[in-house]
Amino acid sequence: MLRQSWWRQKWHALRDKVPTHDEIFAKRWLKPLAPYFNKPYFWVASRRKVALAVAIGLFAGMMPGPTQMLMALILAYVLRANLPISLAMTLYTNPLTYLPLYYLAYQLGFHVLAEPGHTLMAFSDWKVVIEAGGSDLRAALAEQAKYLMLGVPLFSGSLAVIGYVLVRGGWRCRTVSRWRSRHERLK
Question: Can the keyword Transmembrane be found in this entry's annotation (predicted)?
């Protein structure tokens, strides 16, 4: 019981520091977006909206550089998912994880297209080519681009489906567990 109250205290402390959506749209540069995004369904934390937001964030996180959050914002708007979670979930890609994630996507694309006579480029070769830059990088990317072009959408789509299922399943398990414990207390 002490552990639960400690977590509850931490949660309430964090929640008090996070601005409400009305406070966010009170900012001068976000006021023009208020008519579009200041709707309750973009901020509610229901099981379906959160699972969808996690899937959107995981999918959009593999988009190239600065387009990640824009893509998450557009998808969350169209699908009416939770905006903050959609945007926050794109942050799994960062300077430390970007290269390994893209290499996994490259491997997935290579194994799907697997043409005889072509060899899989090793991760260490990727690092060397990227560090060299210039024409070596362009030549390597041109040769390996088809694997990336297929692998990135497949990988990010797979991450999105896995994230959606895990959130829906985890939320369901937590709800059932709470219901059972409440039922046991009433006996």
Answer: yes
**For residue 86, how far is the Cα from the chain centroid?**
7
The distance of Cα 60 from the centroid of its chain, to the nearest Å, equals: 6
**Among 173, 163, 180, residue whose Cα is nearest residue 92:** 163
Amino acid at 97: T
d(CA 20, CA 43): 9
Residue 156 token pair: 């990010």
Confidence (pLDDT) at 1: 47
Prediction pTM value: 0.79
Could you tell me the two tokens for 66? Answer: 């600065």
Q: Mark the ranges of the chain whose per-residue pLDDT is less than 50.
A: 1
The domain limits of the chain are 1-38, 40-186
Nearest to 49 by CA among 71, 21, 90, 77: 77
> What residue type is 106 in one-letter code?
Y
b/e map 97-128, b = 16+ CB within 10 Å: eeeebbbbbbbbbbeeeeeeeeeebeeeebee
- Answer yes or no: are the C-beta atoms of 93 and 124 closer than 8 Å: no
- Collapsing DSSP states into helix, strand and coil, what is residue 61? coil
Structural tokens at position 40? 């309750």
